[in-house]
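Let's inspect a concrete specimen:
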Amino acid sequence: MSFFDLDRFYQALNLPDDAPFSINLQAYAQLASTNDQLQTLMSNGAPAGTAVIAIQQSQGRGSQGKEWRSPPGGLYLSLGVRPHLPATEGARLTLGSAWGVATTINQQLGLATATSIQLKWPNDLLLQGKKLGGILTESRLRSGSIHQAVIGIGLNWQNPVSPPGICLNSIRLVERNRRIESLEVLTALILQGLVLGYCNWCQGSLPLAPLIAKYESLLSGMGQPIVIPNGQMGNLEGITPYGELKVFVNNGTLLFTPGTINLGYD
């Protein structure tokens, strides 16, 4: 297919030996939503590791049902997993995915602290304080457990963006002066990050506390003052195992669920 070279993608893909599944990528020129397409495939029996990419989406969406503009030049990708997680631990999918993608990009491109990818709670990727991408996880439950989930990611690569967005290939990576030259290579890199996050957060042997510490090491605004919804000032303390944001206010800690507090962008 002329719009996406699957051979080039698989040549670039480098999963760890202990990856819990192989990747089977299906590429489309256009879809309404990669998440919706993959949910249908998974419901019809597609195995974990099935992935869907589209050059553009007509009905892409972000968190809280917001529209995600999806013109050519960006990455619009979904990965299907079958985690069998308790529904109460569903935050692992989003937190782990965001951490895995940010960690992989930072390592592969050799980004130093000043130019590294950071995380904006709960599901955004930041570059230089601006929105580089976002993750939308949609799960299906059975008997109180997540038996099927689709992890969708939209990432600004070299597509047109408006503030507060930024593209990965719009900056000069000073450390190695490297850019990701093809969508196929970018797709392989992002899937490696999603698998890394899934292995560590959903199937790994590490307790959750050190994983949260890893996430918080990339969390934008850690220890900084923020305004909570009632207008008071607080300090961002981190996150809970359930994906809530911890804010220290007046000698106590308040917890906020996604969608109840806006952290903003630089």
